[in-house]
Backbone:
């Protein structure tokens, strides 16, 4: 299970990861089972262990937040420049393309609990075809690992943890030897349309009014 103190993922990464997980859960029963077990494990934790990391730190320190460190100005050092807010327009553009070509948002927002498996399968096939077309038209993707899934791999010390996620019984230090369960994906290129002046990226799909 993930460490409660893991740094939060940026919004654009969470958006992409949500898409990837959705289709993986839909079409990969084994992955869906592992995701379900992880969800149940988190739900079974006591409420205190599901709290935000900062709240946990305050609780362990006796309920009081830690005193802030002296500022850089007080130490005679220049104040660090504030970090720029993450740009989400590209992610919204990609979401808009997936909606336009594959009706992805319509599919995700639709209540499919009352639909039969055959109906869901037909809809998923159409969404998959459209979203795949949009993705391949605007992004060049490549697997992170070149080995076949199921192959035995060795991760030497100094491997990039942003490229490889360790799952299962993780203990000790590198080198790690295990089985490749998913090759991962990286975006080598991303080519999105240039927005026109006055374009509102937050509008994923405009409402349609027939006259």
Residues:
């Amino acid at each position: 299970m993930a460490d409660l103190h893991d740094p939060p993922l940026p919004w654009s990464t969470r958006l992409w990861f949500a898409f990837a997980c959705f289709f993986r859960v839909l079409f990969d029963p084994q992955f869906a089972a592992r995701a379900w077990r992880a969800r149940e494990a988190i739900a079974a934790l006591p409420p205190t262990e599901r709290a935000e990391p900062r709240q946990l730190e305050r609780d362990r320190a006796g309920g009081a937040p830690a005193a802030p460190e002296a500022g850089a100005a007080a130490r005679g050092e220049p104040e660090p420049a504030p970090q720029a807010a993450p740009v989400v327009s590209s992610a919204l553009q990609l979401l808009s393309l997936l909606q336009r070509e594959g009706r992805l948002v319509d599919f995700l927002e639709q209540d499919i609990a009352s639909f039969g498996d055959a109906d869901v399968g037909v809809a998923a096939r159409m969404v998959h075809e459209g979203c795949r077309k949009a993705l391949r038209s605007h992004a060049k993707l490549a697997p992170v690992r070149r080995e076949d899934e199921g192959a035995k791999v060795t991760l030497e010390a100094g491997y990039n943890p942003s490229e490889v996620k360790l799952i299962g019984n993780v203990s000790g230090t590198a080198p790690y030897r295990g089985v490749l369960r998913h090759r991962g994906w990286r975006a080598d290129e991303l080519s999105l349309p240039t927005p026109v002046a006055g374009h509102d990226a937050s509008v994923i799909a405009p409402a349609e009014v027939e006259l």
Summary: The mean pLDDT is 80.
